Amino acid sequence: QIKLYSFFRSTCSWRVRIALNLKGIKYEYLPIHLVKEGGQQNSEEYKKINPRGHVPALFIDGQTLIESLPIIEYLEETRPEIPLLPKNPRDRAVVRAICEIINAGIQPCLLYTSPSPRDRQKSRMPSSA
Questions:
Q1: What is the spatial distance between Cα 25 and Cα 74, in angstroms, rounded to a whole number?
Q2: Helix segments in 24-109, DSSP class H
Q3: C-alpha–C-alpha distance, residues 55 and 33, integer Å
Q4: What is this structure's pTM?
Q5: pLDDT per residue over 37-82, tens digit each?
Q6: CA 36, 9, 27, 78: dihedral to nearest 10 degrees?
Q7: Rounded distance, CA 23 to CA 78, Å?
Q8: Nearest residue to 58 via CA among 79, 39, 37, 38
Q9: Cα Rg of the chain (Å, integer)
Q10: Residue 67: CB partners within 8 Å, gap ≥ 6?
């Protein structure tokens, strides 16, 4: 059985869901809410599935795969009946470039951590009274 650990707002998860659906691959959707309960991806239970604590994760063929593009590449290589990539090598390169632009361009590069109350207090500018 194929299981997709995913969050409905995650663009990374969208990519995998789109690939699975285009290829007609049936899967069980297991939601991992990134905000609820302090982020379900941080739970010990989910960290056993994906130690990085990210979504998506795909359990398929007896193994768990992580990161959207490698998951999609795995699907393309192991289930070639309905291809996602064009046959022409130049066209494939264009598609891969677009994927990389989306992958690197729309994802945040840094994890945001909220400053502590003390740090917020120190950063406040003095009032001009």
A1: 13
A2: 44-49, 68-78, 89-105
A3: 10
A4: 0.77
A5: 877 787 888 899 998 888 999 999 999 999 999 999 999 999 999 9
A6: -130
A7: 11
A8: 79
A9: 19
A10: 12, 54
